[in-house]
Design a protein that fits this description.
The chain is of the alpha/beta class and about 450 residues long. The protein has 15 helices and 20 strands. The radius of gyration is 25 Å and the shape is globular. The protein starts with a helix and ends with a helix.
């Protein structure tokens, strides 16, 4: 790994990765590779997570292809130096910012979206002119195998390479001196990544998670809320970092919402062949232990051999329940009730800042109160998870849920150092010594 990184460092020093033509060519090559390997990726995602063909394409392959196409179209504009204003006391000078690549980038991916969550940041790293080492999740073994073949056949390893192995390999990679590290995974591992990066003062993006709440007030359209919550929660068998982790429903509409939620689950997730499975036995056991049978009001069908857990609702949950002590990351949905929005906001404020938050309401005052008084990475009003699909807005966490953001232009900016330049045309020496009282008076007037 050290030798590979040195090869990439030498290749980067040739400056070949920095030109517009080179970057565009590599994005086109990545797009073609993903198209050529589309069926292989679908098959691998089905093997690893039982993802249907539609879900695999929409949330992983097509999602990334859309980002590549946008990057190709916008790349020249993104790369163009940005003109900035210059203060009057710097008369005769122009100012601008150049986006330059960091250099050697490490991308560490998770298992839940094992293709998208390494290829999507890769788009930004390529567009920004970096070299890249990818470390896919060792748990999604079939997808890992396809990624190795696809990347190896498409790119020279001195430019883009894939390294495989368990957590020990990841740890060894993190001991090396990269110029940027991009990590997606749990908060616990994110802390380890951040600590190791700090030894070299390496900048990082940490896409983590947390317990993302959903608030449904008494004015909400309950049919739309139930449909959106069911979709957002049970997509990928709940193994989505921005899935609604738990629901707070106003007590006056609790029973009706529960009824509609059950109808939506039956309508959309009753085909077991279309529903995902849990990534590995350890995660299956952890999720199974979070389910309190006395609070199950729907679901709780499990099959250990297939690592299958059906959509499961836990009702009348409190913060003392085991399911509320950690991020769920599976198809288990706890429902809690509230009566006063201000009191609910105070409760959520006491928890760690989540990656996402969703609010369902037709009361604009309630919506604004939630959006302005609670801190979270991103979210949606009267919808769930769809903010992640808008490449025009940044996606990322805050506090324990992450550091930094990406998608679209924001991916380009994430993997680029913003280098500020002042270009002097006139040689004015007002600030140079020797100084006088008159000159000091003039400077004070200008700076005021």
């Amino acid at each position: 790994m050290k030798t590979l990184l040195e090869k990439q460092r030498r290749y980067f020093s040739t400056n070949e990765t920095k030109s517009f033509a080179f970057r565009k060519e590599q994005l086109i090559k990545l797009r073609k590779a993903m198209t050529d390997y589309e069926e292989a990726l679908k098959a691998a995602l089905y093997e690893d997570l039982h993802k249907s063909s539609f879900e695999a394409y929409a949330t992983e392959i097509g999602f990334t292809l859309h980002s590549i196409s946008k990057a190709i179209k916008q790349l020249k504009k993104w790369m163009k130096p940005k003109k900035e204003k210059t203060p009057i006391f710097m008369f005769g000078t122009k100012s601008y910012v150049i986006s330059e690549p960091y250099g050697q980038v490490l991308i560490i991916g998770p298992y839940n979206y094992p293709a998208q969550l390494v290829l999507e940041p890769l788009v930004g790293a390529i567009a920004s002119g970096n070299t890249v080492i990818i470390k896919p999740s060792e748990y999604a073994t079939a997808t890992e195998k396809v990624l190795v073949e696809m990347i190896t056949k498409t790119f020279d390893p001195s430019y883009i390479a894939v390294v495989t192995g368990d957590y020990k390999v990841t740890s060894e990679l993190l001991d090396l001196r990269f110029d940027y590290i991009f990590f997606t995974g749990s908060t616990r591992v994110g802390q380890i990544v951040y600590e190791k990066a700090s030894k070299h003062l390496t900048p990082v993006t940490l896409e983590l998670g947390g317990k993302s709440p959903t608030i449904i007030d008494e004015t909400a359209d309950l049919g739309k809320a139930a449909s959106s919550v069911a979709f957002g929660k049970f997509l990928n068998a709940g193994q989505t970092c921005i899935a609604p982790d738990y629901i707070y429903v106003h007590e006056s509409i609790h029973d009706k919402f529960h009824e509609l939620l059950v109808l939506e689950i039956n309508k959309r997730f009753n085909d077991r062949e279309q529903f995902g499975t849990i990534i590995h036995d350890g995660h299956f056991e952890r999720l199974s232990n979070l389910i309190d049978p006395s609070k199950v009001t729907y679901g709780h069908e499990t099959n250990k051999d297939d690592k299958f857990i059906s959509p499961t609702i836990l009702d009348h949950v409190t913060w003392d329940d085991k399911v509320m002590q950690e991020e769920i990351f599976g198809p288990i949905l706890p429902i809690l009730t509230y009566t006063n929005l201000d009191e609910l906001i105070d409760i959520i404020k006491q928890k760690e800042k989540p990656l996402a938050l969703y609010v369902f309401s037709r009361n604009r005052n309630n919506i604004n109160k939630v959006l302005t008084e609670l801190s979270f990475g991103g979210g949606a009003v009267n919808d769930t998870i769809m903010h992640v699909s808008n490449g025009h807005i940044p996606f990322g966490g805050v506090g324990q849920s992450g550091l930094g953001a990406y998608h679209g232009k924001h991916s380009f900016e994430t993997f680029s150092h913003q280098k500020s330049i002042v270009d002097k045309k006139l040689h004015l020496t007002l600030a140079y010594p020797p100084y006088s009282k008159g000159r000091e008076k003039l400077v004070k007037k200008i700076l005021k």
